[in-house]
Sequence to fold (79 residues):
Amino acid sequence: MREEIGSYDAKTKLPEILRRVERGEAFTITNRGKPIADLIPSRASSQLKAESAINNILRAKKKPLSDSELDNLKGSGRK
Fold:
């Protein structure tokens, strides 16, 4: 269930609320106890992360690694 927050509190604590929404929490904003709006995490953020990951994979595929570069990467991962 979403946490309810009054419109005045939403206005005065907006930066804190937005940080919490960014972490995945959701809120229902009320006015005099009546639900007015839902504040939920944006799906665009997840979409941007997925697109970035895909672009990184595609960029890595375009540049083949030599055997020595691959050996260096393998060795650097073993610490």
